[in-house]
Design brief:
The protein is mainly α and 73 residues long. It has a domain of 32 residues. It contains two helices and no strands. The chain is elongated, with a radius of gyration of 30 Å. 0% of the residues are buried.
């Protein structure tokens, strides 16, 4: 058994129509074929190299900000 309730409107007739529309949408969604699963892909070599270059760049920035113990300032 399936129950669909609607109480958005003050009118009982409008609520019945809204409930029927909601039920129809629910049934349409249930009958529709499932979406195809995404095929997982491996990142390209260029994308991987770009990511690693960005990591190296970020590490260099952080290394440059580091406190140098040899410097008296």
């Amino acid at each position: 058994m399936l129950t669909v309730a609607a109480s958005e409107q003050r009118s009982q007739l409008a609520n019945r129509q809204a409930a029927r529309a909601r039920l129809a949408a629910l049934l349409r969604a249930a009958v529709a074929p499932p979406q195809r699963q995404r095929v997982p892909t491996k990142p390209s070599r260029a994308a991987n190299e770009r990511r690693l270059a960005a990591k190296r760049n970020r590490a260099a920035v952080k290394r440059a900000r580091r406190f140098d113990r040899k410097d008296p300032d």
